[in-house]
Each structure stands twice: as structure tokens, then as C-alpha cells.
Amino acid sequence: MARVEVTFCEAGNRSTEGASMAMIHGGKAKTEVLNSAASSVATTTRSEATDGYGVVMLWCESDVWVTTGDSPVAAVPGVGQVGNGCRLTAYQYGYLAVRKGDRVAVINI
């Protein structure tokens, strides 16, 4: 088991000089902590962001496979297979776009 921090955010544009600078709206961020396991574990929290603006920021203590959706189930694809989601490398932040109502699921790699 490893700690996985899942922060649901809304993207915004914060630049007083007119340039585009993508930022996460901190006042709307909500974090749920999961313990990854050998079977898929999903958040109970769902994205509340307007479609097109939802982002999840992820951080984990060990490599995990992550996927998103209404009822996500994380599964690591084998060689020659195609699967939903992607690897999240330990001790690095990852970001994924989500739709309103999406949850996040993780599984140990």
C-alpha cells in the first residue's frame, strides 16, 4: 500500500498582463487520500468543475496506474494490450483532465 493524494481542481487563467498562464484555482481544490493496493481503489470524491475546466493533480509514494471516469476501475495493461489510464511515477506530480462527475481510480504496479 502506498499513499496517493488526489486533488480535484478547476483550471483558470491567472495573468494580469494579458498572457495565458494556466493555474489551478486553489480555493476550489479538494483532496482525497487513497491507499493504493493490488486491486483497484477509487475516490468517493467526484469532480465538481465545469466540463472543460476539471483537473486532478496526483502525487503518490510508489508507482501506480491511474484512470478516471464515472465508475473507473484501474487495471495495468499487459504487453501487447491497450488499457485506459496511465502510469503515475512515485514522488512526481501528474495532472489529468476530468469531466464533471468523474472519479479517479488507482492500482499498484
Task: Walk me through what this model shows.
With 109 residues, the protein is mainly beta. It has one domain. Helix content is 0%, strand content 47%. The chain is built from no helices and nine strands. The strands form two sheets. Strands 1, 2, 3, 5 and 8 form a five-stranded antiparallel sheet that branches. Strands 4-9-6-7 form a four-stranded antiparallel sheet, with no helix packed on it. The chain is elongated, with a radius of gyration of 14 Å. The chain starts with a strand and ends with a strand. The model has no long low-confidence stretch (mean pLDDT 91).
Secondary structure layout:
Blueprint: E1 2-13, E2 22-24, E3 30-36, E4 41-42, E5 54-60, E6 64-69, E7 86-88, E8 94-98, E9 103-108
Antiparallel strand pairs: 1-2, 1-3, 1-5, 4-9, 5-8, 6-7, 6-9
Question: Key features?
Answer:
single chain, 109 residues, 4-stranded antiparallel β-sheet, elongated, mainly beta
Output the structural class: mainly beta
Could you tell me how far the N terminus lies from the C terminus, measured between alpha carbons in angstroms?
A: 11 Å
What's the rounded overall pLDDT mean? Answer: 91
Please provide the count of β strands. Answer: 9
SSE arrangement, N to C: EEEEEEEEE
The major pleated sheet works out as: 5 strands, antiparallel
Specify the number of helices.
0
Residue runs with pLDDT of under 50 for 5 or more positions = none
Radius of gyration: 14 Å
Helix content: under 10%
β-sheet strand percentage? over 45%
Oligomer: single chain
Please tell me what the overall shape is: elongated
**Tally of discrete structural domains:** 1
